[in-house]
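Lab meeting minutes (informal)
Scribe: AK
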Amino acid sequence: MKAILHSLTTRLPSPRPLLRAALSLPKPITTSSDLFRQCGCTDSEISIIFHRQPSLLKSDLQTLESKLALLKGLGLSGSDLVKIINCRPRFLATRIGRGLDDRIKFLEPLFGSRQTLLKAIIRNPSLLNYDLNNHIKRTVSLYESLGVGREDLVPLLLSRPTLIPRSSINDEKLEYIRRAGLAPDAKMYKYVVAIMAISRIETIREKVANLERFGFSNDEVMGLFGRSPLVLTLSVDKVQRNMTFVIGTMKLAARIVLVYPFLLYYNLETVLRPRFMVAERIRLMGLAPQIKGPALLRALRMTESRFVKVYVQCHGDEKDDGVGKELMQFYVNAKRFKRLAVASKKPVHRGFPF
């Protein structure tokens, strides 16, 4: 009898393997959170996704699963999905399957590698939605016709994600590009072309006219754009305020910005005015080194820590009640000055900033 019972018990499967198999079964997907978790998103990342786009909580699971499978198949991770949805909250509400293979076949050789392409997609997820012929190929052909090859176009696409849908060229823009005086192989040429292409022609005219009011000729303005194309991205208000300070307060000639364009870029309240006030304070106190002439321009271009070390802390230990502490307090107070009536200024929305 014992032998029979022993043979029966040895034939029964052990419960431990069955338990392990049951525990290893994938949990059924019942919510959108399960789908994102399956793609590698953490709970905190899922919370960010739903905060940016709450409608995803009620998405059709089958449709959402197919879209996430396409993105995961491209090599995008869970953290990449968070960046994409943070950039384009309604991205998963669009149709991304139609023509996707053709876009990838064209874009991957354009960007040189799948890794670079994924970097571009994270910065501009709409690359997966743009019409291949009417948008992507048209833009690439446009820049190639202007002398901007694909190896130069890729950095532009990474730095300005909306380059593809916003680029357009007409005869007047071509004339502006020609008058910038750059050869197609010049380092700044591709930036001039790109900024001109994505800017409204009315905006370009307005910014050229704004600089001409300070006594520059049209050729000088275009030469400035050729040497420092990002001047075209500055608002009219910022250029006016910085130029007024340079001419009226610093008592420098307007043409100095043609040689030192950084005077137009730097923030007036946090860099130009406080450092110029420190220079004047040092002059009135008769301290050395003085900040005037070429030294003033060098001081304005210094990093914050270097400026403080070279022109403020050099006058004594801040722990003492001496000149160094007084000058440091003066500099801190100067940086606290705010633009008058900035809180009551009504924002003007004009669409794309260029």
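Next up, CB showed the second protein from the same session:
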Amino acid sequence: MNIQSSSESQVITVDVVKANDLLRNGGYRYLDVRTVEEFEKGHVDFDDALNIPYMFNTPQGRVKNPNFMEQVLPVCTKDDHLIVGCQSGVRSVYATTDLLDTGFKHVYNMGGGYLAWVENGLHVVAPKVGV
């Protein structure tokens, strides 16, 4: 049996339909951990959607944002209810783990990420074309 001693926190993943319900009706906020460039190409449609990248693209590949928690803490409290999403659901698992390990209590990972959100026909904010 593989037990992770570094994390007592168990990441709970919800599908995009459940995430949409929690965001619309459950008092949850959306934390998009994709890059700013990805976010600007389109994102989940919520007025207070936050975009705090968990990783950055560099010439050497993706690297973890060393200031992720320092950027989250001024805009979210540890009692906030958060849905964490990325492009496909991988970065958001890592981000959710970090949030839980830091003491956040009500955080869900959005399985499938933005791609699954779009595939399910849920509302998105798309970039303005020709503006």
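CB comment: The chain is about 30% helix and 25% strand.
No objections, moving on.
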